[in-house]
């Protein structure tokens, strides 16, 4: 199986696509998606980060394998100053005061966060139907649910958004 991360990395360093184009396209796809997989888009942050990657490439600097790669965060993971609702009504207006270590490691490697993803509230459940944002539709058959507590994440990967 070919690595999507490696393919995107090669496209960036070979200038087949700019990082800003890549991120803009993925954000547009997430905005138009009707699978109910996205709780909050992180468009401004993502575009700023993409511009920095493009600047490095344009200067002839090397980028790491994860630099410029778009990723999504299940809405239970914290990213400083961003919404972190855990797909619950209780936390729907909460903004995180810090970034989770696992997410910080991705940021340090240059990966670009695009979206906080729909999931069962607080990650408790098995179908991604128990969320204040409504059930996540299956990536292949919208009459079905995505399944699992990380349905938004699964759909976004399956559809190629993240």
What is the percentage of strand-forming residues? 5-15%
Count every beta strand, where a strand is a DSSP E run of 2 or more residues.
3
Helix content: 25-40%
The Rg value, from CA coordinates, equals 16 Å
Shape: globular
State the low-pLDDT regions, or none: none
Short descriptors:
162 residues; alpha+beta; three-stranded mixed beta sheet; 3 strands
Describe this structure in words.
This protein has about 160 residues and is α+β, with helices and mostly antiparallel strands. The chain is built from 5 helices and 3 strands; from the N terminus they run H-H-E-H-E-H-E-H. The protein has helices at about 5-15, 20-30, 45-60, 100-110, 150-160, and strands at about 40, 70-75, 110-115. It has a 3-stranded mixed beta sheet, with helices on both faces. Helix 4 (about 100-110) links the parallel strand 2 (about 70-75) and strand 3 (about 110-115). Helix 2 (about 20-30) packs antiparallel against helix 3. The longest helix has 16 residues, at about 45-60. The radius of gyration is 16 Å and the shape is globular. The two termini are about 15 Å apart. The mean pLDDT is about 95.
